[in-house]
Design brief:
Elements (H helix, E strand, L loop, with lengths): L8 E7 L9 E7 H5 L3 E7 L5 H13 L1 H6 L4 E6 L3 H11 L4 E5 L4 H5 L3 E3 L7 E3 L2 E6 L2 E7 L17 H9 L1
The chain binds benzoic acid (BEZ).
Length: 173
């Protein structure tokens, strides 16, 4: 297992009210250090914004349990998906996500370096993230929960261990 999170640059979009026009957003690059340095971060990564299990269970449960994660010393909860910044922004908005930071890995660079990039051409998705979660302390990966059955074009969507409750129970134990 890799021990340190990979270096990458995440391309995010942020609101800038000083901008005119119907789309007052601008690009903001965030490095791995920006996300992880000096912080205890819980990451969960999933195959796609707006997909059913991700929207009804994976993301909402981390949202719900945010205060409990904070009580365990977690500084931030980050959701990664191989989707672009525009899609991730709209998904967060539609989910009313206030606690979890949705981080677009649009190019899949971080996910590939994590060894978690899988082909989902069977669904017309292209390359996406396998479901996993991890606890990262100052950039060091302390624990990882990776779903079983890692493979390209997996006909199922295993979701047993990368959920919020598993990570929270681990933190409490
Ligand atoms: C889901 O979250 O339900 C899902 C994810 C990837 C592909 C299909 C469905």
């Amino acid at each position: 297992m890799i021990k340190h999170v990979p270096n990458t640059v995440f391309k995010t979009r942020v609101r800038n009210d000083a901008l005119d026009g119907p789309n007052p957003f601008e690009w903001k690059d965030l490095s791995s250090d920006d996300i992880f340095k000096g912080k205890k971060v819980v990451v969960f990564s999933l195959p796609g914004a707006f997909t059913p299990t991700c929207s009804t269970s994976h993301l909402p449960r981390f949202e719900e349990l945010y205060d409990e994660f904070k009580a365990q010393g977690v500084d931030a909860i980050v959701c990664i998906s191989v989707n672009d910044a525009f899609v991730m922004y709209q998904w967060g908005k539609s989910q009313g996500a206030k606690n979890v930071f949705l981080l677009p890995d649009g190019s899949g660079d971080f996910t590939r370096k994590m060894g978690m990039l899988v082909c989902k051409d069977n669904l017309g998705f292209g390359m996406r993230s396998w479901r996993y979660s991890m606890l990262v302390d100052d950039g060091e990966i302390r624990e990882m929960f990776v779903e079983d059955g890692f493979e390209d074009n997996c006909p199922t969507d295993p979701f047993e261990v990368s959920d919020a409750d598993t990570m929270l129970n681990y933190l409490k134990s």
